TrEMBL record:
Coiled coil feature spans: none
Source lineage: Eukaryota, Viridiplantae, Streptophyta, Embryophyta, Tracheophyta
UniProt source species: Genlisea aurea
Family classification: Belongs to the GASA family.
Name of the protein this chain belongs to: Gibberellin-regulated protein
Chain ranges passing through the membrane: none
Amino acid sequence: GGFVDEKIRYGPGSVHTLECPSQCSRRCSKTQYHKPCMFFCQKCCRKCLCVPPGFYGNKAVCPCYNNWKTKEGGPKCP
């Protein structure tokens, strides 16, 4: 599978809002900051309808998730 497959599987619209909790549990499963990770991931998931693959990084397949910044300009989505 190449980048195109990943974009279809993980890109915008790939996740239904009802799937956000389970997708974010996967995304946040390796962090020691589980609660804040889940909070922001679910916020981002509901807005972007995608959660990147893996436990961190890989955000390019989900541009909305990647580009949503905090007021300070840092990444909002884990």
